[in-house]
Amino acid sequence: MIKIIQGDITTLAVDAIVNAANQVMLGGGGVDGAIHYAAGDELYEACLKVPEVRPGVRCPTGEARITPGFKLPAKFVIHTVGPVYRDGQHGEPEKLAACYRNSLTLAAENGCQSIAFPCISTGIYGYPKEEAAQIAVREVHAFLSNSEPQIGRAVAPRPPQEDGLASSRPPEMEVIFCCFSERDANVYRSLIA
Ligand code: APR
Predict the structure, then answer these.
(1) Which among 136, 154, 171, 176 is positioned nearest to 13, based on CA atoms?
(2) Domains in the chain, ordered, with CATH?
(3) What is the pLDDT of residues 124-137, one digit of tens each?
(4) For ligand 1, what atom is nearest to the CA of residue 125?
(5) What is the model's pTM?
């Protein structure tokens, strides 16, 4: 199920919120700054413990890493690094799509049934909002329509129910597009009618 809301992602009581982070993963401005502020210093400490894959890079562009949410109402923060937009001809669409795919996969692997995304890359990183929203919606749709095998593989089977019948299918993940502005929310509404 997909929902669009306008608001502050740090207030959402979902299983995971996604952070539009940078490769160092130690905080920044925009939604990254808001998430670190609301989660408290423990989030910074947890990010420090994420191993660097090369000097100064804990999460390469397009990949995702997970930490607890600490003081946030969300259980987890999934940190992903969107591409810096140049002209759309330097792999930006593929990298942005990978952010959504990898965040959703990591959420499923950690048993999340609800996840909220900000509009990754569309602030400081300059990605045009309409193009970014199209990629986000396309990737989430694709993930949800394939989610039975992906979630089935990733999450341990639930115990048999009281009537003794094992549940064959985990519930579908709820995916929220959390837009900071009404204008951004309208971009998503126009794509998900
Ligand atoms: N809740 C939801 N969305 C928010 C919030 C919030 N509290 N604060 C900002 N946003 C929105 C912005 O309006 C924008 O649409 O998040 C979107 C992404 O903007 P940025 O935070 O600037 O992220 P991005 O463009 O991916 O740039 C990442 O910014 O702060 C740094 O460390 C971060 O270097 C990284 C870069």
Answers:
(1) 176
(2) 2-149+162-192 (3.40.220.10)
(3) 999 999 999 999 99
(4) 25
(5) 0.91
